[in-house]
Amino acid sequence: MTFGVTEPAREMFDRSVLERLIERRLNDHDCVVLVGPRQVGKSTLAMSVASAFKGVVSLDLDKPEDARRVVDIDQLFSDCTNKLLVVDEAQLAPDLFPALRVEIDRQRAAGGRCSGKFLISGSASQQIEDLARKLTGRYSQIELLGFHILELPMLPRSDDPLAVISDDVPGVSSVDDFEAQKKLWLRGGMPSSYFASSDQVSFEWLNDYIRAYVDRELSGLTSSISSLEFEQVWQFIASQSSREWDWQKIPGKLSMKKDVVTRCVSLLKALRFVRELQPWSKSPGNRVAHHSKYYLRDTGLLHMLLNCRTFEQLEQTGCRGGSWETFAVEALCRSSAAAQGLFFYRDNRHNELDLVVEFDTTDRWGIEIKSGDNPRIEAGNQRAADELSVTRRLAVNLTGSTLSEAKGFEVMSLEAACNALRSHRIA
To answer: Left (φ > 0), alpha (ψ -120 to 50) or beta: where does 338 sit?
Structure first.
């Protein structure tokens, strides 16, 4: 459901980079499976990609007439010869996946590669992923999430997720950029939340979204977690977002058994609601952090669970800094497609970096995320960068405004840092 949104408003975001990525994968693979949380635009994106193909058979298995076509699977595949078959809500037809495996193998045996292509999506991504394992070696999986900061059309961005862009991309955001990013930060990237007619309507939609998972979706995903346990852990992660977890203490704080907490966290990660950022552990001789950090991947959901509807409330509750770090870490991680590893660094000498992006053993970036009116790079940030021998040091804040003490770090706005990561190639 959307609230007070006109279709022209939806043109504000540009997802053409994702469209081209899906098109390239379809060119290289017989089947592409789109996964991600509900309501992030998977179906819309699939249909947009399909519009570029000459022959398309499109099925929405929520519709009885389309569901009936899957019953006679041989006839369906015959109808799709030399065409793209798009199947939405594919989790409703689990028998489709083994049939796809047989069909792909049959076409490969007959002609070396499939004469048709298959694009699969659904609103229950965990089920889709489980079913897609029956296609191992025959498909490519693409993760789709909410809107990303680089999809704002006014921001400089590359057409190719890994294409090199010029070095003179401005690092300071304009006023318009700043306001658009603040809206994305506050409401999150779910289209219906972002495009809601007001912050209040966005907040109500996010509340309904969470309630749908807790009250209705959970029972179809697992029988080993109660809705109360699931919601409690989700709420707790929100309250601890950007902080390290001591797993010896967490179950006691929640009055739950450790295995229950572990199952809840694992499910939230599988549903793409939570990101685990592991500590850097490759520096011998130093006592480094051993506990992971957990972040909610969508700050709209974070703010809903924190009951913070405005930036003023985030400030009053002391949550603004953690919220900004959560927003920035997710945007930066999603921009690091070429990275081999993503970590944070902290040792017992108070040396730390919010994000370490390792492209290979000789090429890693150290990123410190800053907020507030007068942020500064601390000596511990500089020592951490030295300890890790980082090849590039970035200090990221919302606008790219100058820090009072940068200490050798390049200061840039979040979208400029995301663009730099996206365009970086391994030498």
So the answer is: alpha
